[in-house]
Write a structure and sequence with these properties.
The complex is a heterodimer of chains A (about 80) and B (about 280). Chain A is an all-alpha fold. Chain A contains 4 helices and no strands. With about 280 residues, chain B is mainly α. In chain B, about 40% of the residues are buried. The chains are: A mainly alpha (about 80), B mainly alpha (about 280). At the A-B interface, helix 1, helix 2, helix 3 and helix 4 of A face helix 1, helix 3, helix 4, helix 6 and helix 7 of B.
């Protein structure tokens, strides 16, 4: 496994959607390749930080306004079109 | 190890937490073979909010997961039943809404409006546009409910509508540029890591929360729309690769390729904020 091979498989490796023999090969590579080890860990951390950060919250007052607006438009259109 | 999953829709929450965050967290300890459908290796010992066993339809589910043993088969069975119940409940709501029951549709709006707002804001990068997208996407969904055949999840179908509405907004704002999910701007080589520096152990703690959010927002905004959208659906919203492909009308290899490049580019851009200090105050 070269570093390029490793990077190609990185997404499947991090998502654990990879067969066990390929995983073993990649982990063998990780055991001695410091660069890929760092890239793997920092990419994993990147995903975690984004996943755990609520970057755009919908404030409750705005949420209520939007819900009222949506439902009043839906009501004015009454029943969805039927085929 | 405790992991608190952020609010995720009840009908997908358990599965996502198992297949996504929880599983990935554990894998870093190199102990594969847990959290499979048979539940081996994972124990849920504290469920926040209403808990998986009592989550009401439409509620957001919060999970607190601690790894320390083997998931009891009874617990797993309860969770699986609740996931199935929630999916059935959603179909029932869609059916009722199709018959003109606005209250049923209201339930669907309440279930997903936060997610749609986040996705829209990530893509459009504009708050007013995101508000419009939320309204337009739900209205369009309501008007076209008959076209929803139930082959996919209602949420995936809704996301597809919202992404299209968001891209239209983006195109209007950038009338000089084509914005498309088909754009494949950079070659594979462009995503090859240029800088390999290890990060501080808890890089997110180097900054105040507001400061950190600004960094993360600006960094993800710098990605091309086609990469940003895939990253947001897959890694921020927790859709599966298959659901992301379906929502964006892309092939699975295309989703994986864009996701890899998005992740690597974000990592590269975050280096300057998070890399280990070469000595000094913790911020390089």
């Amino acid at each position: 496994v070269t570093c390029k091979d490793f990077l190609k498989e990185l997404t499947d490796y991090l998502d654990e959607t990879i067969d066990s023999s390929t995983r073993e090969e990649l982990e063998d590579h990780l055991a001695w390749c410091h660069n890929c080890y760092v890239i793997c860990n920092t990419t994993k951390k990147t995903i975690e930080i984004y996943r755990d950060s609520e970057l755009y919250e919908l404030p409750e007052d705005l949420r209520s306004k939007l819900e009222v607006a949506i439902l009043s438009k839906c009501t004015s259109r009454k029943k969805p079109t039927t085929t | 190890m405790d992991y608190k999953a952020k609010s995720i829709p009840a009908e997908t929450g358990v599965t996502k937490a198992f297949n996504g965050a929880a599983e990935r967290d554990f894998s870093c300890q190199r102990k594969p073979g847990f959290a499979r459908p048979n539940g081996i290796g994972l124990c849920i010992c504290n469920l926040g909010g209403d808990g998986a066993a009592g989550v009401a339809p439409g509620n957001q589910l919060e999970l607190r997961i601690r790894f320390h043993g083997i998931l009891h088969p009874d617990t797993m069975a309860i969770i699986e039943t609740k996931v199935k119940d929630a999916a059935t409940d959603e179909l029932a709501l869609v059916q009722a809404a199709k018959s003109g029951n606005v209250a049923a549709f209201e339930e669907l709006v309440k279930r997903y409006d936060r997610n749609i707002f986040r996705i829209a804001q990530h893509i459009t990068q504009n708050r007013e546009d995101a508000e419009d997208v939320v309204q337009d996407a739900f209205l369009k969904a309501y008007e076209n409910l008959e076209q929803f055949q139930g082959n996919s999840k209602f949420y995936t179908w809704l996301v597809r509508i919202a992404v299209n509405e968001s891209l239209m907004k983006l195109r209007r704002r950038r009338s000089d540029r084509t914005v498309s999910l088909d754009e494949d701007i950079e070659t594979e080589e462009d995503s090859m890591p240029r800088e390999v520096a290890d990060w501080s152990p808890n890089p997110e703690q180097l900054y105040k929360q507001g400061e950190l959010k600004d960094i993360l927002r600006k960094t993800v905004q710098g990605l091309p729309a086609s990469f940003r959208t895939v990253f947001v659906l897959r890694d921020v919203e927790g859709l599966s690769t298959e659901e992301t492909a379906e929502a964006l009308d892309l092939s699975i290899p295309a989703v994986k390729s864009r996701l890899l490049r998005a992740r690597l580019q974000l990592r590269e851009r975050l280096n300057k904020f998070f890399r280990k200090p070469r000595g000094g105050d913790g911020k390089t």
